[in-house]
Amino acid sequence: LPHFEPYLKERKIQEKQLNQDINLHHNDRRNGYPNSDELKKGFNIPKINNVIGRALSKTGAYKKLVNSKQVVALIDDDMCINCGKCYLPCDGSGYQAISFDLETYISSVTDDCTGCTM
């Protein structure tokens, strides 16, 4: 469901129900993350200086990417703000592999996606 009205209310209701249904696992961790009680027991939260730059080894120049592997577009519903910016370059390039619903503002990738890296 989108993150705007009238869907936002329904989304929050569904998220609340989902959170109630999730079973705790991994030593009282929900979804792998410590709960607040575990944090109070002295769970080591990493310092900012220890986290800065950890992803740099996983990034690089575009020219170093392996373009021989076939990949297609992916729209993450949790990150999507329904702005349509994923739809515009795809539609303008002639592929038209991303559809955009004007009523719900939901984008979806069709089977026509060729992974053109736009």
Automatic annotation (TrEMBL):
Keywords: Oxidoreductase. GO terms for biological process: thymine catabolic process; uracil catabolic process. SUPFAM superfamilies: 4Fe-4S ferredoxins. GO terms for cellular component: cytosol. Residues 71-103 form the 4Fe-4S ferredoxin-type domain. One of its GO terms (molecular function) is NADP binding. It comes from the Eukaryota. InterPro entries: 4Fe4S_Fe-S-bd. PANTHER family: DIHYDROPYRIMIDINE DEHYDROGENASE [NADP(+)]. This is Fer4 21 domain containing protein.
